[in-house]
Design goal:
- By secondary structure, this protein is of the alpha/beta class.
- Helices cover 38% and strands 20% of the residues.
- The protein contains eleven helices and twelve strands.
- The strands form two sheets. A six-stranded parallel sheet has the order 3-2-1-4-5-6. A six-stranded mixed sheet has the order 7-8-9-10-12-11, sandwiched between helices.
- Helix 4 packs antiparallel against helix 5.
- The longest helix is centred in the N-terminal third of the chain and has 16 residues.
- The chain starts with 7 loop residues before the first helix and ends with a helix.
Amino acid sequence: MTVFTHSDSYSVQLNEAAQFIQTKDDFLVVSHIQPDGDAAGSTFAVAWMLSSLGKRFTLINEGEMPKKYMYMAGSQQTILNYDADSIPLTYKYVISVDCADFSRIGRVNQLFAEDAAILNIDHHATNDLFGSVNLVLAEAAATVEVLYDLGKVLGISFSNELNICIYSGLLTDTGGFRYANTSPKVMQIAADMLQRGVKGHELAEHLLEKLSYPQISLIKRSLNTLTFDSSKRIGWLAVSLDDLQNSGASNDDLDGLVNYPRNVEGVEVGLLFKERAGGHVKVSLRSGGTVDVAHIAKSFGGGGHIRAAGCTVKGSLHEAIESVVKEVGLALE
């Protein structure tokens, strides 16, 4: 396996993160609201790493972890759905994974002790370094890539369970190793995981290929909303609350929908607008590289990467579409 060299600052971050874990115990591990494959992979990767070190920990997220990611938990890891009434404890030591900013943790932050020390592990360029210790590598394809490096520094044994988590996070955040963030390092780590026995083809079929009937129903409904601006360089889909209810789909079934408008020839930016209860709209943005969608998302209080970002806009679907498409159009100009 290739030995990777890092900048001095990243090496310092890795050592500080390792010291945080080695010198403390009884951790709360959290990822972001509505976890994706990398958030799930990172959460359970940290759990397996802490287990191998004999550390105590609790996994809690706002909202349920999507069922399709629960294979990474094995039979030993349990992740709790945040409920202030059923979890009266507070935690002094917190490990946050894949959260671009503190707000992405959600209401779980109410479980943090007033003097809580936070280890912030992430790969988003818009990360606001909210941790007491920050391990953030913006050029990493996924947070599990950073955790792979951390595992090496900690000197842990890479179990099959941990390897599956790392491979799954890489697979999902690179779109099956197709996105521009698929670096030589990503492929070398993936190769290492395969050499250790990870069945990549089985994970790809489970995470990227299989569709449920509710998902198919939602795709049919959302494609009827496919719209382009006059230049046909911006394309978008909209999913209403009624669409979710009538299709029987859940928020987890929205994964990948934004790629439909983005993949149309000539489209520079693809958008997905998802109506939420309470007069809010969640927006996913994907760019071909001409436009920095993280900058646009940040203007609406969100964040992410140059090619993939997200934000939440207050208002109706129509209002959200109008305001975000206008900003994307200005960026294209």
